[in-house]
Amino acid sequence: MTRRVVVVGAGPAGLGAAAGALRAGAAVTLLDAAENPGGQYHRMLPGAFAAADPGRLHHGWRGFERLRDHVLGHARCDWWPESAVWAVERPDRGVPHVHVLRGEADGAGRARHVLVPDALVLAPGAHDRVLPFPGWELPGVHTAGAAQALVKGERLVIGDSVLIAGTGPFLLPVAASLLDAGAAVHGVLEANTASTVARGWGRRPWELPAESGKAGELAGYLGLLARRRVPYRTGRAVVEARGDGRVEEAVTARLRPDWSVVPGTERTIAVDALCVTHGFSPRLELPVAAGCALRDGAFTEVDADQRTSVPGVHAAGEITGIAGAQAARTEGLLAGWIAGGGAPDAPEAVRTRRSRDRARAFAARLAAAHPIGAAWPGWLRPETVVCRCEETTYGALLSAGGDPSRNSAHAVRLGTRAGLGPCQGRICGPTVAELLPDAGGNPHHRPVAQPIRLGELAQPPVENPIENTDRKESAR
Amino acid sequence: MTRVVVLGAGIVGAACARELTAAGCAVTVVERARPAAATTAHGEGNILVSDKEPGPELELARLSLRLWPRLLEALPDPEAVEWEAKGGIVVATTPEGAAALRAFAAGQRAAGITAAELDAAAFADAEPHAVKDVAAAVHYPEDAQVQPAAAATALLGAAVRAGAVLRTGCEVTGAVTRKGRITGVRTTGGTVGADAVVNAAGPWSGEVAARLGVRLDVRPRRGEVLVTAPLPPTVFHKVYDADYVGAVGSGEAGLQASAVVESTRAGTVLIGSTRRRAGFNDRIRPGVLSVLAARALRLFPSLAGVPVMRAYGGFRPYVADHLPVIGPDPELAGLWHATGHEGAGIGLSAGTAAVLRDLMLGREPEIDAAPFRVDRPAVRPEGRAA
Ligand SMILES: Cc1cc2nc3c(=O)[nH]c(=O)nc-3n(C[C@H](O)[C@H](O)[C@H](O)COP(=O)(O)OP(=O)(O)OC[C@H]3O[C@@H](n4cnc5c(N)ncnc54)[C@H](O)[C@@H]3O)c2cc1C
Ligand SMILES: Cc1cc2nc3c(=O)[nH]c(=O)nc-3n(C[C@H](O)[C@H](O)[C@H](O)COP(=O)(O)OP(=O)(O)OC[C@H]3O[C@@H](n4cnc5c(N)ncnc54)[C@H](O)[C@@H]3O)c2cc1C
Which of A404, A441, A454 lies nearest to residue B303, judging by beta carbons? Predict the structure, then answer.
């Protein structure tokens, strides 16, 4: 009997996983909440890449298109767009069941489906992480991902004078796509000091040649910034945004390696938009619901073959570590191959594992070059909003966390409402956990992974639709 | 000064700690995790008379209702507890349900509870977004609600300010005894000496009792709750389904679902709750949530388009005769129990603490405490060893 593999997420990792499982001979159901495959990667392309280095980067884009067309056109692949996984259910025995809502998110009456796979690959990716600072809730302050989406999706220029700040190599493609869309970029501020960045990238230099493609990609972005005379500064951050009803000024300051502000280095500059990113938060609610163990509470733990701690559940892409699109795809290929019943010692598996290991080494380098400095809470004031959905302030959190009879994650959450709004703590959860390290709790415990209407929930599910013989047709 | 160790910092332990500290005892609260992190943070905050038949539990509920306003008044920030005396409406949608509801309400009225039947127009007036086609509706103005974790931590804070010591991250592993008397508890943080020990470990109080060397038949009963996105005012009272009906075809052991629909101060609507036997298995079952959603829509069909943002669940501390356990353990002098409140521990915590205090100090409690005694068959079945 053909093995049935369900792949959740059709970003680079999920597409890779589908390809790997198909190659191993399995039948694949590939799901994504979005209308199109590609994940974050699709959202940012091709604008950003075209602007930076058309030759090299278009090569990557064409690779993506080939992978996508191969997977979606494959006779054993069932592609489910606009299909949100709202719950993962652990039965007493066997592989977790996947609960799906199919149909437009804001359309009426999505149908409920339950998939019972032989193996599951989770590849739901990550979303931007943004640390709070005074004024970050003002209109005109965007996460890098949101800015990207506005530029790409709606072709909006988000400002005439834009400052990009935060940490990580992703500041660069953001700058590139804003430049491409015609924005005037005032500068790019990397919060880590030049020596932190240099030390991180300089670790184990013998590994670098293997990742020269990756490094070259970054060099391409830096070259673009230089050509457009956009300054790239290290050891500086936006520590406050000001404005009447929308951002008008940014206060920047020099930072020490631990991200504490060097007094007297504050500068105020006029801006009409601010893009901030402090890396990515992996979307861990599905692996947590499936019962998968986490690594340092931050990523899904996987073995050398991308298996999680739960039999039959595999993970790939940014939920296992932040390493970029190429790494995500490679992890996906391996996860899919193994999930689809491929032999772990087959030559292609060995090859894939090797390039996955190189990508992981690169990720370790990234993490070392762009850490989050422990002293960032020094930027906050008691009135600074930490949870934007519920407008919970830093002061409210500190007074709850400072009282031993209230210092438990549950009591703090219910008492301050931090994390109880529409985003369910996806944005502020990691921040609150860092601000109140003794409160306990699991910020990724979110058994309802996507909102589901009462009416949709009350309906019985359509019975196990992957049993349909006419799969290709039913997907249309 | 009598040294009392309270085991568990849920709402029952917190209420007992506050009451005993106020009565002059030197109280230490020992909690293996954190305050109000277990059952107390995983249920709802209904403080009800409407669901209780005349008898000891109703008397404890009425005592609690008298005590709550006084407890709140003494707090530095009573607003934080989100007390709302909004009243409840119980709704029957079938003729059989209506007959049973009317008979139940008549019994309660005889016991002194206000229970006023609403006709269709009065019900539509009280709850304009609810189903129109009801067989019977009874209004209970005494029903109230609190935010349970806030209530528990406020009571615990009051105890600590009055001198109680709170030890979190400290798990009870056994008893220290001398001449048939408990003189302390062993914990992962060392031994804590005591003249008296109060077992308030909620659904784990059977396990804690066993560690202390006695039997106590308290078991977990799983329950789940749905939380919607915030809405403009839509649900004005607590609105309940009159009948807990077995959910056929859900494939769940002993699943019962009866909807309680209520809005919170933040605008979200809480939909509780299920009852099932699942041991301490905390996996969420989408099929169970589905049954609950369907029950709620029978009361509020207009909520069909409202998104559910979250679901959570907890373990009610359950005793076979559905009564709490409050009193001394006859087999181990110095050990007391305050547990087994099932789905009503938030409301009943206030009365429980007062009864326990009176029993410990040798005073006459305000209500008859005999029905809650430890050596009754449901709590201490014959022939079962610890
Ligand atoms: C601004 C920006 C710039 C970047 N620039 C570069 C670059 O220059 N070079 C580079 O290599 N990488 C870059 N990246 C990173 C790259 O996009 C990611 O590494 C890659 O997309 C991760 O792949 P993934 O498959 O793990 O996750 P994603 O791409 O995030 O895909 C996950 C998919 O899962 C779906 N999903 C999630 N949850 C559910 C659910 N419950 N139900 C159904 N579907 C779900 C999502 O809709 C999404 O489509 C950039 C990212 C950003 C945001
Ligand atoms: C879905 C649901 C809905 C509910 N709705 C309502 C309602 O509307 N109204 C109402 O009044 N009640 C309701 N309840 C019931 C109510 O939540 C409980 O009765 C109440 O919270 C029990 O409180 P507790 O203090 O006894 O237990 P808990 O809150 O569980 O506290 C016990 C504490 O003991 C600790 N502990 C356990 N073992 C040890 C050990 N070995 N050493 C040290 N500490 C230990 C635990 O960590 C825990 O913190 C509901 C319950 C559920 C599950």
Answer: A454
DSSP string of A288-356?
Answer: HHHT--EETTTEE---TTSB-SSTTEEE-GGGS----HHHHHHHHHHHHHHHTT--TTSHHHHHHHHHH
Nearest CA in chain A to B30: A405
- How far away is chain A from the Cα of B294, in angstroms, using its nearest Cα? 5
Give me the domains of chain A, ranges plus CATH numbers.
4-127+281-366+462-470 (3.50.50.60), 130-278 (3.50.50.60), 376-439 (1.10.10)
Which pLDDT score is estimated for A152? 65
Q: What is the pLDDT of residues B37-76, one digit of tens each?
A: 999 999 999 999 999 999 999 999 999 999 999 999 999 9
Could you give the CA distance from residue B353 to residue B374 in angstroms, rounded to a whole number? 16
Interface of A with B (CB under 8 A): 86-87, 89-90, 99, 108, 114, 289, 390, 403-411, 414-415, 417, 420-422, 424, 439-441, 446-448, 451-455, 457-460
Among the residues of A24-92, which ranges form H helices?
39-44, 47-52, 54-72
Query: What is the C-alpha separation between B207 and B197, in angstroms, rounded?
Result: 15
Whether the per-residue pLDDT at A107 is higher than 80: the answer is no
Query: CB-side exposure of A109: number of CA atoms within 13 Å?
Result: 3
- The answer, yes or no, to whether ipTM is higher than 0.95 is no
Decide if B34 and A420 are in contact by the 8 Å CB cutoff.
Answer: no
Question: pLDDT tens across B347-373, in order?
Answer: 999 999 999 999 999 999 999 999 999
CB A418 within 8 A of CB A412: yes
Domain ranges of chain B: 3-71+148-218+321-372, 88-141+220-318
What is the mean pLDDT of the segment spanning B234-249? 72
The verdict on a CB contact (< 8 Å) between A454 and B160 is: no
Contact A392, A418 (CB under 8 A): yes
Do the Cβ atoms of B311 and A411 come within 8 Å? Answer: no
Q: Is the pLDDT of residue B242 over 50?
A: yes
Q: Does the C-beta of B200 come closer than 6 Å to ligand 2? A: yes
State the DSSP string of B235-299.
--SEEEES--EE-TTS--TT-EEEEEEEE-TTS-EEEEEEEB--TT-----HHHHHHHHHHHHHH
Distance of alpha carbon B241 from alpha carbon B273, whole angstroms: 11
Judge: A409–B306 Cβ closer than 8 Å, yes or no: no
Instruction: Provide the pLDDT for residue B248.
Output: 38
Distance CA B187, CA A141 (A): 50
pLDDT at A170: 84
Q: By mean pLDDT, which of A11-25, A303-317, A435-449 is the weakest?
A: A435-449
Reported as a pLDDT band with limits 50, 70 and 90, residue B250 is very low
Q: What is the mean pLDDT of chain B?
A: 93
What is the rounded average pLDDT of the residues A283-291? 97
Residue B308 has pLDDT above 50, yes or no: yes
CATH classification (class only), B3-71+148-218+321-372: alpha beta
> Which residues of chain A have a CB within 8 Å of the CB of B271?
454
pLDDT the model gives residue A393: 96
Q: Which CATH entry fits the domain spanning B88-141+220-318: 3.30.9.10, 2.170.120.20, 3.40.50.300, 3.30.750.24?
A: 3.30.9.10
